[in-house]
Design brief:
- The structure holds two protein chains of two kinds.
- Chain A is an alpha+beta fold.
- Chain A is 38% helix and 15% strand.
- Chain A is built from five helices and five strands; from the N terminus they run E-E-H-E-E-E-H-H-H-H.
- Chain A has helices at residues 26-33, 85-97, 106-119, 125-131, 143-163; strands at residues 5-11, 14-20, 52-55, 58-61, 74-76.
- In chain A, a hairpin with a 2-residue loop joins strand 1 (5-11) and strand 2 (14-20).
- Chain A is globular, with a radius of gyration of 16 Å.
- The mean pLDDT of chain A is 97.
- In chain B, helix 9 runs antiparallel to helix 10.
- Chain B starts with 8 loop residues before the first strand and ends with a helix.
- The chains are: A alpha+beta, B alpha+beta.
- At the A-B interface, strand 4 of A face helix 2 and helix 6 of B.
Chain lengths: 164, 289
């Protein structure tokens, strides 16, 4: 129990309170303490992006964040993505395009894609590749992932035009 | 997995004054300042970060004032991330080498967490922002409880491999850059194994201004070819006042050989680093319009 502290934050709209050591990785707290196992560990070094989450809407590698720094933050993990309109569209596009095979990179890819779609940048292949450069995939060869993101951008724009 | 996680203490200063007070304890010994953590957590994960006292500064607003323009000087707060730097119109316009460098750090998720102060104080010989800051002649502001604020010209900051001019009870508060004249041309190139998520084999930042091809100002700074980032001051001295020509460029490449002694290491070797540095200097001088 020595040196444990209480950290309070929100995951996907749910209030959380965790008693743990300040330098436990956010990745481990999500997976072990909160049983949110959708976020994966690929490298533990911030190189592969499998552990990607959003902190206050910003894409980060949760393997590099000590849980103390989650204090008061609003976290989005893959478990919360389908509740977001663009998130659901991105997930559908990944399925339709065949942008997922073993699935281990997919949570991180979807979160990085969500950030890209929300940024409203022009969905050129070049820009998508740069936005996803921190996410490695060993299965798909990336082509169908890029197609999924291109399609998602167009579909999200269409939905917003129809609603607007 | 990190063993004995309970031995790793991380303090949360209430505010900036509290931070300075914490740093003053034991004259700062055994304190490690922790901001974005993108380098420290990698060391942590690999077992190269021993249990000690970490001080979290990520939440301190005094260090996160962003990018502010004061007449002809731009001040960048310590906790300004690479993402903020690359996207800032003033940096893109006046310091394109710095915005370019920030856009090449790691990848998006790293750029969202890594800070300018962290890049400087971590003092990797390969730090991506560092040659840009050298070429732009940055000034660092640091503060301690005992001695208050002081300025360190960035060229005087790196004393040797990971040996810094900042004291153990001091915190880096901001980086200041004088806006260069609009006739300045800028060049930045990072050479590595991949377009993203790579540590440079050679990295160069340079600025130049000419009148009728005669060099009025020149700065050439490099990373990954020495224990610290460095400026090629002797070569700059050779080139100042000279007219750019193919024979001048040829002499410059020989001077590169004279002035740097890169090493073989896990990422590259001496021969490659020397040759690529020469190529970049040539590319730079040939690109001057």
């Amino acid at each position: 129990m020595e040196n444990k502290i209480t950290i309070k934050f929100v995951t996907n709209g749910d209030a959380q309170e965790v008693l743990t050591w300040p330098m436990k990785r956010a990745l481990d707290v999500l997976r072990e303490d909160l049983k949110l196992t959708g976020t994966k560990e690929g490298c533990g070094e911030g190189e592969c992006g499998a552990c990607s989450i959003l902190i206050d809407g910003v894409l980060v590698n949760s393997c590099l964040v000590p849980v103390l720094q989650l204090q008061g933050k609003d976290i989005t993990t893959i478990e919360g993505v389908s509740a977001l309109k663009s998130g659901k569209i991105i997930q559908e596009c990944f399925q339709e395009s065949g942008g997922t095979q073993c699935g281990i990179c997919t949570p991180g890819m979807v979160l990085a894609s969500l950030c890209f779609v929300q940024s409203k940048q022009e969905p050129s292949r070049e820009r998508i590749v740069e936005a996803l450069a921190g996410n490695l995939c060993r299965c798909t060869g990336y082509t169908k992932i890029i197609t999924a993101v291109e399609t998602a951008c167009k579909r999200v724009e269409q939905v917003e035009t129809n609603n607007g | 997995m990190v063993e004995r996680l309970e031995k790793y203490i991380m303090l949360q200063p209430k505010d900036y004054k509290h931070l300075l007070a914490l740093l003053a304890i034991d004259n700062g010994k055994k304190n490690v300042i922790f901001a974005g953590g993108t380098d420290l957590m990698v060391q942590f994960h690999s077992g190269h970060l021993r249990p000690q006292r970490f001080i979290n500064i990520a939440h301190l607003q005094e260090l996160n004032q962003g990018i502010m323009i004061d007449d002809q000087v731009v001040h960048i707060g310590a906790l300004t991330t690479h993402a903020m730097i690359r996207n800032h119109s003033s940096i893109q316009k006046n310091f394109p080498n710095l915005s370019h460098a920030a856009s090449l750090v790691g990848a998006a998720a790293i750029q969202n967490r890594g800070t300018i102060a962290g890049n400087i104080v971590n003092a990797s010989p390969a730090g991506d922002l560092l040659p840009a800051l050298l070429a732009y002649e940055a000034t660092l502001e640091v503060e301690s409880l005992q001695r208050g604020k002081r300025s360190i010209p960035y060229p005087k900051f790196h004393l040797g491999y990971k040996k810094l001019a900042i004291q153990e009870d001091e915190v880096l508060t901001r980086v200041s850059l004088k806006i260069p004249s609009s006739d300045r041309q800028h060049y930045y190139r990072k050479v590595g194994t991949r377009e993203a998520q790579s540590i440079s084999k050679v990295c160069m930042a340079a600025t130049i201004s000419t009148v009728n091809r005669e060099i009025q100002h020149i700065a050439i700074a490099l990373a990954s070819v020495a224990p610290t980032p460095l400026r090629l001051q002797r070569l700059e001295g050779d080139l100042l006042g000279q007219k750019i020509s193919s024979s001048l460029i040829k002499d410059a490449l020989e001077a590169v050989n004279r002035d740097i002694s890169p090493i073989d290491d896990i990422r590259s070797n001496q021969q490659y680093r020397l040759r690529v540095t020469q190529n970049l200097v040539q590319d730079f001088l040939e690109s001057v319009h």
